[in-house]
Amino acid sequence: QVQLAESGGGLVQAAGSLRLSCAAPERTFSSFALGWFRQAPGKERELVAIISRGGFNIYYADSVKGRFAISGDNAKNTVYLQMNSLKPEDTAVYYCAGAETYDGTTPRRSGDYDYWGQGTQVTVSS
Length: 126
Prior knowledge:
Blueprint: E1 5-7, E2 10-13, E3 18-23, E4 32-39, E5 46-51, E6 58-60, E7 68-73, E8 78-83, E9 92-100, E10 115-116, E11 120-125
Parallel strand pairs: 2-11
Antiparallel strand pairs: 1-3, 3-8, 4-5, 4-9, 5-6, 7-8, 9-10, 9-11
C-alpha cells in the first residue's frame, strides 16, 4: 500500500502563488509516476501535471502550462506543485496520485493511478 499525503492548499488571491506538497513512501520516485489531479465542484476530476518515475519526463495540462511546475525531491520523498499566476478557475480540490510504471511514461488517465492522497483544497478569490 502506497500512502500519499498532500499539504499546502489554502486561500489565495488571483495572480498569487501556492506550493502543494505530496509526501510519498521511500523509493516511490524510482517505481511510480506521480501526478496531480484536481476536481472542482460539479466537474470531473482532471489531470494537472505528471512527473514520470525518475523524473525524466513531465507533462502539463494546457490549462496550467507556463503557470504551474511539478518537481520531485528524491531525498525527501516529496513531489511538489508550484502554482503561479493563479486564477479563480484553478479553484478545486487537488489530489496527488501514484501509478506504478516500468518506464518513463506519464499516464494521463485517472484510472491509471492506483494510489491517491486525501486531497487539499485550493481556493482562488477574484
